[in-house]
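Translate structure to sequence.
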């Protein structure tokens, strides 16, 4: 299991040319089926458009230190973005606020969204750590709110 935060800012390397294309600026995923659609790459060049969509189909691997692509086509991708989801409020089924989304968990191949890391504020995070809520415990979610089962996150 990986956190999307660890993927953002990784360099993007083209395996056919060996060229560094830029940096991962954001990750886009489909909220309906919880699959990663692709990434938004911030290009190094000042002469071209600074941002480029890169479909998950063009990505060969998400390594620890870089993201490898082969023959990127620049297909348009759509869905929710990591940067827009982080900070959204999380409520339990009784309507009590449980915290905010601190990060999003994905599987090791970065194809499926598994759940969210929940922050209850800096002090609570330092004392008890952040908690996780996985897809099977989510009752519903919208663009800016997530509702989870019961009163417990774990």
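Result:
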């Amino acid at each position: 299991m990986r956190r999307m935060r660890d993927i953002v800012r990784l360099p993007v390397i083209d395996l056919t040319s060996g060229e560094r294309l830029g940096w991962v600026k954001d990750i886009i995923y489909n909220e309906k089926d919880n699959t990663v659609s692709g990434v938004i790459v911030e290009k190094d060049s000042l002469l071209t458009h600074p941002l480029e969509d890169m479909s998950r189909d063009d990505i060969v691997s998400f390594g620890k230190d870089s993201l490898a692509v082969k023959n990127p086509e620049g297909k348009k991708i759509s869905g929710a973005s990591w940067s827009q989801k982080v900070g959204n409020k999380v409520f339990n089924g009784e309507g009590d606020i449980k915290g905010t989304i601190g990060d999003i968990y994905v599987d090791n191949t970065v194809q499926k969204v598994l759940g969210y890391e929940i922050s209850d504020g800096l002090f609570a995070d330092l004392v008890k750590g952040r908690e996780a809520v996985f897809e099977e415990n989510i009752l519903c979610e919208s663009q800016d709110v997530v509702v989870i089962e019961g009163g417990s996150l774990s």
